[in-house]
Amino acid sequence: MTGHGTLQVATDAMVNYGREQYEDAATYHAAAIYIGRNGQIPAGAWGELPWSAYWQQRWEKGLDHRIREARLMADHTGEHAAAMLKATADYTETDIQVALNFDLDNPYLRPYVSAYAGLPASTGVYRPGVGGSAPLFASGPIQFSPPTDLEEFRKLVGERLPGRDFVPCTTSNPTGVDLHSGVSGDNLDAFVAEYGEDLLCSEYVAEQKSPGAPRPFTDFILPAWRCAPGVIRNRAELLFACTRAYKECADAMKSDIGRVRDQWFSPGAALAWYRQAMSRHQYLTDINAELTWTADQGIQAANLLEGMRNKFAEFGHQRAKQIIELAKAVIHYGADQLGGIGNCKSDPVKALTGALTGFLDLLYLEQSQRHDQAIGLIGIDEQRRKEQGDPGTLAHDTLPFPKGSPGEWGNGKQWVANPSTGPVAS
Fold first, then answer.
1. Would you say 217 and 196 are in contact if contact means Cβ atoms under 8 Å apart?
2. Distance between CA 22 and CA 132 in Å, rounded?
3. Which one of 89, 166, 243, 272 has the minimum C-beta count within 10 Å?
4. Does residue 97 register a pLDDT over 50?
5. Model's pTM, two decimal places?
C-alpha cells in the first residue's frame, strides 16, 4: 500500500513539474520575441559591399528558424504543463490551481518575460475530468524598451551606423558624406577621416580627365567603411544570453523529470509521459545548440568584416599619398612639382589612372577572398540543399518538434504511484 505521506510527495512532484513547465512556457514565448528584437541586425550594419544584401538575407533566414523553434517550444510546453496539472487533478479528484513565481535567473531575458508573459499570480483552475487550458501570452506589439543596466543593451540603445551623417557637398567631397562619422574607431575609420576627401577629389579629377577611370575609394573602401561589425557582434552576443536561459530551463527540467519519475510507476501513463518529457528535453538541448551556432555565425561574420576593414586601411595607407600626389600633378599639369614619380610629368592622367587601377586590383582581390570565406561561413550549405531538395532536413533549418501528445498519458486515473519510491525502470 502507498501511504498518505508518500502519495503527497508523489502528487507534489507532479504539481511542481506542471508549475515549472507553465513558467517555462512563458520563458520560451519571451525568448522568441527576444531573439527577433535583439538578433535582428540593421541592414546597414553589413555595409554596402557586393554581397552585403546576401549576408543580411542569410542571417535573417537563420534567425527566423530560431524564432520558430522558440515558438514551438513555448506552445508545446504550455500544453504539456496544462496536461500534467489536469492529470494531477484527475488522480487526486481535487481542483488544482498552482501559484507561480517566474524565478528565471537571467537578467537579459527576465524583462521580456515580465513584459510579454503578464506574470499571472497563479495558473487557471484544473478540475477532475475537465480539460484545462494552456497558458496564453501576449503576442501583439507592446511598448517596451530594453533595460540599460547591462552593457549589451546600452550598446543596443546607442547603436550608430557609419556614413549616415552628411555635410555640404564640396569639390573635395562631392558625396556630402561626413567622412569623420565612423563608429568602429579602427584603422579604416582613421584612414577615411585622414585621406577620404583627398581621395574623393583625386577620383573626381581622374574621372574628369579620363571618363570611366577606376574609383577604388568610392567603389570599395566607402562601402566597406559603412559596415558596423561592432553592431553585428553585439547583436550576436545578445543571442548568447538567450542560450543561457535555455540551459537554465533544461537543467531544471531534467531535475524535475527525475523527481516525477522516481515517484510514479505505470507502464502506460507514467512511462509514456517520461518518454515524451525526455524527448522535449532533448529538443530544448538541440535548439539551444542551434541558437549557439547562429550566434557564433554572427561573431565570425563580425571578425571577417573587421579583418577586411583593417586590410583595406593597410592597402589605403600604401597607395593614398601616391594617388593624391598624382592627382595634384594632373591639376598642375606641366608644373615641375613631383620630380621622379613615375611618368606623371609626361602623362599625369595616365599615371593617376594607372595608380587607381593598381589600387583597385588589390582591393578587389581582398574582397574576393573575403567573399569566398563568407560564403562558406554564412551560407547554409547550399550544395547540400540542392542535392537533398528538402529544407526541412538540413541541420540548421527549423527543427521539427518531436511527435507525441498528452493524450497518451493525460488521464490521471491511469497513473500508479511507486510504493518503493525507487527509480522507475525505463
1. yes
2. 12
3. 166
4. yes
5. 0.82
